[in-house]
Structure formats: C-alpha cells, structure tokens
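Q: What would this complex look like in 3D?
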Amino acid sequence: MNPTNKTGFWLLSIVLPLVFAACKPEQNHYTPTPYELRQPSYFPSKNNIPADNPMTEEGVALGRKLFYDARLSGRDGTEGIRSCSSCHHQENNFEYGTPTNTHHAMLPLINLAWNRTGLGWNGGVATLEDMVLAAVTSPVEINADTNQVVKYLQKTKDYPELFEKAFGSREIAFINVERAIAQFVRSLVSADSKFDRYLRGEEQLTEDELTGYELFCTEDGADCFHCHGGGGLALMTTNLFYNNGLDDEFNDPEDRSAITGSHWDRGAYKAPTLRNIAVSSPYMHDGRFTTLDEVINFYSEGVKDSETINPLMHHVMDGGVQLTDTEKDQLKAFLNALTDEHFLNNPDYSNPNH
Amino acid sequence: MKEMQFILMLCAAIVTASCDKPVDYGNVSVGIDYSINGNHLITDSLCYHNEAGNAFMITEIQWFISNMELQNEQGEWTPLEHREVDNLLSNPTDKIFYIDTNIPESQTLLMAPIPVGHYKAMRFTFGLDEDDNLSGLFSDMPESNMFWPEPLGGGYHYMKLNGRFVDADNELIPLNIHLGIGQNANHTEFYQNYFIVEGPIDLDILESKENLILLNMVVDNWFRNPNLYNFNEFGSAIMQNQAAQQALKENGQDVFTWAVFKETNEKDMKKEEIFKKLRHIMQGAAPKPHYWRWENVKKRYGIDKGQDESDK
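A: Here is my prediction, written as structure tokens for the whole assembly.
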C-alpha cells in the first residue's frame, strides 16, 4: 500500500462511520410513562388491560381529553355534536342520570378495569376499545364517521402532538382514539365509599347501615349478595348475567340469550355494580325505575316468575323477599353507604378542558 | 486414628450417595364428572327424581375440593397440588381447586408430578377446612363469587348446586343447595360443615405416563343416605338452615366415587389433550349422546375397579 492509498484508507475509515451515522434512522423519542392503576387490596388481582394497550400517563390524559371533547363527533356544531361526556356524567357514576333515547339504560363506567365478562347489558362487547368504536358510531349515541373523526382531529393544533406522546405518531389512527379512551375509562376507580372505609377498618357503619348490610347478604334477608357481591366481592357485582324476575314475557332481542343462544338466558342481563347506585338512576336494563325505593319495592314484592328466572331468585314464589318498611329503610341506608363522593368529585376524572 | 478417619469418610460417602438417589416423578391429573341415578348429568333438564320423590333439575354445580392426597404402600400421604398457575382460575394456594359445570376447563385438575410407585388410598376435603376457609382468600372470580357472607360465618361456599324442583303445590321453584359454614339463629355460633372423604385406590404412578384419575360426584347420593332429604321439607334455600346443612354433610360421605384410567397416555400431554381425553372417556362410552353409565365406562376403557357405585 503506497502512502496515497494509506491516506485514502484512513480518510475512508473516518468518513464511512459518519455517513452511516447520518443514514441511521432518526431516534424515536416516544417514551410514555407507565400509568399506575390504583389497586385496592380487596379488589381483583386480574384486570382486563390488553397487552397491546398498556396504560400510560399520556394515554390516559389523551383519553380523558377525548372523552370530554365534542370534536369526537368529527363534525361541527351545526350538525349536533356530542362527546362521551354528553351522556356519561361523572356526578351520575358516569351514567346519564335520567332516561335517555338509547335502547337500553346505561351501565356505570366504573371499575371496568376488572370486568372480564364482556361489556353492555348482554356482555356482547368484548373490550372497552370495541365499546368506544360502538359508541362513536352508534346512530343513537355519537353517530360519527370514524374517518371523519380522524380527519377532524388531525387538523387540530393540539391532538397530533398528544397522539405522538401517547402512541408515538402524529398520524392519528382511530384505533388509537379507541385505545386512549379505553385507557381513561380503565382509570376510573371507585373505592372510597363509606363501605370501603368500613372494609378497611377506617370507619364504622351506623346501626341501620349494618343491619342493612346483614339484610343485603343473607338468604333469609334481602338476598342481594349472590349477584351483587359484598365484603368478599367488593366490586359489588359478579359481573355475571341473571334473569332477576322483572318480567314473565321476553321480547328483547338483545338480552343475554342473544349472545349465548341459550333459551335459559332469556330475560337475563348483567348485574350492574351497586357502587354509587344512589346516583345511578334510572335502574334496570330498560331504566323502568327512577328511584331506589322503586327498586327495593320490586325485589320485595314485585318479582315475577318465569321459566327462565334465575334459580338464585328463590323468593319468587312469595313475589319477592318481603321486607318490612323498616327493613327497606335499613337496606337503603346500606345502599347509600356505597356512594363514593371522592370518586364522583375526583378532579382527575373531570373535564380537563375546563 | 487414621482408620477411624477412613471409616468416617466411608460412612459419609455412603450417606451422601444414598441421599443423591434420584426420585422419579410422574404426572397425574383428575377428571371431574357427575352422575345422577347412574346417568351422566344433564343440566337444565327436568328429568330427575330424588329418593324423596321430588322432581328436579340442575342448572349448575360450583364447588371446592381441597387437600387431595394419595397414600403410598408405606402409609405416607402425598399432597396433590396444582401443576401450574392457571390462567383462568386464580387459586392462591396450591391445594384448593374450584370446579364449575359452567367452566369445562375447571373440571380437569392438573396436578404437580408426584413420586412414582403404587398408591393405595385417596382422601380429600369436600369444601374448605378452617385453615383454608378465610374471607378474602380469593380476590378474583370465579372463586370470589363463591364468598360466604361474614354474618353467616364468612369464607366461601363449599358448593352451590342450583336448579329447580317441583314443590308440593306442583310449582317449579328454585333450588339452591348452598353448603358452607352453618350458624345458629342469632349468628352467634358457627358450625364447620366441610367433610373429609377417604377411600381405597389402586393407582400406579409411572414416570413416563400421564396418570388419570376419574372423580365422580354421584349427585343423587346427596339426597339419600343416611338422611332422606326432601326439598319440600328444607325449601329452596338453606344457607341459614343448619339442620339441612348437617343432613347434607352426613349424606356427602358416599357422594364421591373414583377410579383409575389404565390406558396408556404419553407423558407431557398438553392440558387440552388431557382435557379432551377425559371428556372422551366420560362421554364417549355413552349409549346415547348425553348418557353414560359408570359401568359401561369401566368396561369399555378397562378402568380399574375402584370405589364406585356398584361396590356399595
């Protein structure tokens, strides 16, 4: 090798790495912060957070913004705009609070990170991500075109950057809208009612509340616990499906039997959580009751027998559990102890755009 | 002195060698099934009568079995524990199994390998004993759905057998045979209603095989012996009826039968394969699609004579 070649060799050995370095793809600075979901010790240990949508601080924050943003309609106000929060009110347990024109009443959006039996009254929606898609496109809900939603959000000043922080790309895809809102909904944890404080040994229930709890969880009492949990099942629901004796004829094509195909699921619907039940009116899948008193009276005296009533409704031959007026008041006192004011007023769950 | 040292070293070497002797282990799994009057259980079908003459149907059976053990020829008991942490069922302890007719996977219990050899007896606890039956033990469903309210004694239902029966007025009404801790009228005294079942087995655990045990709940026996259990007498719900709990506890002693499946099964069968195999054994021998008779299963598959209905 002559001196010229030697010089060339050294030059090449310096220049080539520089060239390769320049050609190296741009470093991706997408590093979202993992979100730590609150996990009360007496809640289930298994959740439904999908592997392809881990919760992150950025994802939850984006989901919260979208949840409260009517731009999720993908159209302007002249055509009528809605967001998730148009119907899901924090002060009403993320339900509407009064009857709506949807075909079924709403279910509360709380503690759904631990729901593993499908969503909706018949459990037909597998994931929260799917539920977002269903709600955004339903003609009786947001009634939006997902392509239009993406187009609309892409044009905004704020969203592309927020999507980049949460999902690594300024290009908005509707799947990431679903993921973000699902993350926010999974973050909605209610575990600070008076009954929670009782379970944690922090506060005693009143005598009436305690008697109400005993009625709640005894077969000879009001017998609520088999479907709605209690101290040993603190979500206050099994998240399973029951025909609770509301009717003796069944015409709803979207009850649980629509999912299972089983005749024995006619008239069966998901047992909703009783957390914050006092602020979750209207009640039952069709919203037929507007007060807790009506609900208690139904279980006490109005249960109807049918071929498919769940066997757990064993008081049906008496028309219900036959509570006295005092017992009804005590049961109601316990149900009121399930109200979680901290959750209903938690600023972390409120509209971030205010 | 040197001789003494040599002897000591020799002894140490022998002891060490004997300690190093490897123990071979074989897999074992337990398939759960149910029979009524000799036929395979059909749920949601009003086709059964108990000894007291009540017509009834069963919707579901959900229950706990715990502390299963096998006894070898030397009289030592070997516990049967979970082989793996199950993705579906959340058992926080190794020796408690939740079984549910609504969850087919729950009816195949895969056990951790146990030492090879001959086992002559099996025992287990129906339900959960005082040491295991602790409120809050299970935080996840389906087990957590079995919780037994604190005012009634706490812990978990040992069993929920739900269905319907035809009452004295000829009405089809709910039937909830729920077993757990009993209590007096004031809920100031509580009664343990679990029980231990023990009986002979003829089981050779082989290293190279997946050894299968079939455990059958003879549902009609809950209502037969020694107490004639009449649904009209005890009613639809019995969580707060210790007399009913006691009667069922006594009747439960002969509710379970078991046998060993001798056909060759290769080691390292996948869970799905074991499950399929057990389903096949239990249902494949049926003269009609939904019926199987224990005797037919034994004849067809060469199942060993175990404790079963015909022995009684």
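A: To summarize the key features: Chain A touches chain B through 32 residues (CB under 8 Å). Residues 68 and 86 of chain A are 8 Å apart (CA to CA).
Q: Very helpful, thank you.
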